[in-house]
């Protein structure tokens, strides 16, 4: 499949997934590109970022502290003693 066709198919799939999750959604071309697509990318990246942070925490590179709100832990570089 050509690169353009693959990109179009992928975006169409993401728009369909968004509409299935938000059946009352409606927006302009610019709104769909700016909001719907960015939300889909963020959602798909969350699992990857979570796994990467878990790996870094297990290896002692970062620590996860409690947050003051519902957004979950706050990650920061773990201080190491040399």
Per-chain topology:
Elements: H1 3-21, H2 29-58, E1 62-65, E2 74-77
Antiparallel strand pairs: 1-2
Helix pairs in contact: 1-2
SSE run: HHEE
How much of the sequence is in beta strands? 5-15%
- Secondary structure class reads mainly alpha
Low-confidence stretches: none
Task: Estimate the mean pLDDT confidence.
Answer: 86
Terminus-to-terminus distance: 53 Å
Structural overview:
It is built from two helices and two strands. The model has no long low-confidence stretch (mean pLDDT 86). It has a two-stranded antiparallel ribbon with strand order 1-2. α1 crosses α2. Helices cover 60% and strands 10% of the residues. It has one domain (3-77). The chain is mostly helical and 82 residues long. The protein has helices at 3-21, 29-58; strands spanning 62-65, 74-77.
Put the structure in a nutshell:
Helices cover 60% and strands 10% of the residues. The chain has 82 residues and is mostly helical.
Summarize this structure as a short list of keywords or feature phrases.
82 residues, single chain, mainly alpha, two-stranded antiparallel sheet, 60% helix
């Amino acid at each position: 499949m050509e690169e353009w066709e693959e990109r179009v198919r992928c975006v169409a799939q993401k728009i369909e997934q968004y509409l299935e999750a938000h059946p009352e959604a409606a927006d302009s071309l610019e709104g769909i590109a700016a909001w719907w697509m960015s939300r889909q990318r963020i959602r798909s990246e969350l699992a990857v970022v979570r796994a990467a942070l878990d790996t870094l925490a297990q290896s002692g590179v970062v620590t996860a502290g409690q947050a003051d709100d519902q957004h979950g832990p706050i990650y920061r570089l773990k201080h190491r003693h040399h």
